[in-house]
Amino acid sequence: MDDQQLGRFEVLAEIGRGAMGIVYKAKDPMLERAVAIKTINMGLDRDGAEMYEKRFYQEARAAGGLNHPNIVTVYDIGKTDTECYMAMEYIEGAELRTLLLPGKPLPVPRALSIAAQVAEGLAYAHERGVVHRDIKPANIMVPDNGAVKITDFGIARMRSSSVQTQTGMMMGSPKYMSPEQVIGKRADHRTDIFSLGVILYEMLTGATPFTGESVNAVMYQIVNFVPPAPSAINPVSPAALDAIVAAMLAKSLEERYQSAAEVARGLRECELQAHGAATGATSTLPLGVLAAGPTPTVVDKEVKSAILAQTLERSRRAEDETPAPDSAPVRGLSRTFDSLEATQRLVALSDAALTRDPAASGPLPLSMQTTSTALSGGWRPRDTLIVAAGAVTGLIAAAIIVLL
After folding, report:
1. Are strands 130-131 and 93-95 parallel, antiparallel or unpaired?
2. Same domain, 118 and 82
3. 3-state secondary structure of 148
4. Are residues 266 and 134 in the same domain?
5. CA 289 – CA 297 distance, rounded (Å)
6. What is the pLDDT of residues 17-27, one digit of tens each?
7. Which residues are catalytic?
8. CATH no. for residue 47?
9. Vertex 73, ends 70 and 77: CA angle to 5°?
């Protein structure tokens, strides 16, 4: 690989590998600088190759149109017979995920600095109509010296782009997904804020707020549970920071921070307070956003109902500037029905039924009560009367026919 050329770039070494391609360290001989080359292997079936090529160019357009200290810079894109490639800024540093060790929180000032820089980069992208949708520690580069960088806009959604990831497809990494992503809704810029809140929580406590032995278990927790406040897990974390984390992790979009710029300002203010060694700070947490004690609790029923009550049509309304004309209705099927969303709700209910302790007290969820009643109610007296009346009517009609 040492002698390989990609366009004008000289490949020096492989620095990363994924399912769809490889990342190389390379040299730009014209400008005499190191670059990172991300490639996508096109040796797939035609449909798969076309889809990934479109997503690859979408990433290049999304990141290439952004010029900010906290977003990786794209220099060039190109294509060979077998692969597409993108030349980006080469960063001497490490992915944030390599710095996050179980049970070992980062120092509070460092966690605040990293989160504030990411929030500032996201605010810039959001103002230009780009939503990342996959904010996670693996997509945040922490250099040895210099600014933190957001990378990998591979599943970004641009409002002005004609090439978008498919609606209804689950995009994102499970532990860092927002509730609206879990239930299959259209993700807007507030999804990135939720994901950054999960990362900030992990930096402060040494653990993600939502955990489980399977993807379904993690997704169930994201929708149904509220985690304890960071200060309840890590006493070093300032209580004033709890309110910021709570507003980032609010399950309701209306209760969540409405812009990444607000998040950045709050984190910078908290950073100044931390440097000033402020003491006696208290926080007022939004109801139902974080648990009061050191253990997770079930989300407030009203909050969960508000999340599930929003239809997919409603979540699209603010983003579809030119809605398509109404088509002829299909009998027996609602136009707003979404199979992925319905399936995920069914999985959540099934998981609840399977994991419920038979000796536990308390009512079942309303939807499960309804199902249980319908299945176990038996043959009711009204049903018997209806069947008997039908039989008598049939006999009378038969007798009249015979007499005639």
Report:
1. unpaired
2. no
3. coil
4. yes
5. 10
6. 766 678 899 99
7. 134
8. 3.30.200.20
9. 155
Measured in degrees and rounded to the nearest 5, phi and psi for residue 204 equal: -80, -30
Q: What's the domain count of the chain?
A: 2
Compute how many other C-beta atoms are within 10 angstroms of the C-beta atom of residue 371: 14
Segment 31-78, tens digit of pLDDT: 889 999 988 766 655 566 677 677 777 767 777 778 899 999 888 888
Positions in the chain whose pLDDT score sits under 50: 1-2, 158-171, 278-288, 311-319, 321-343, 345-347, 349-350, 352-377
Tell me, yes or no, if the pTM score tops 0.70: no
Which of 164, 229, 218 is closest to 344 using CA atoms?
Answer: 218
Interatomic CA distance for residues 132 and 4, integer angstroms: 32
Return d(Cα 391, Cα 282) in angstroms, integer.
Answer: 73
82 and 104 co-located in one domain: no
Looking at the structure, tell me whether residues 127 and 174 fall in a common domain.
yes
The CA distance from 270 to 272, in Å, is 5
> Which residues, other chains included, contact 291 with Cβ-Cβ below 8 Å and sequence gap of 6+?
226, 227, 228, 229, 232, 297
Contact 135, 199 (CB under 8 A): yes
278 and 198 in a common domain: yes
Residues of the chain with pLDDT > 70, as a percent, come to 63
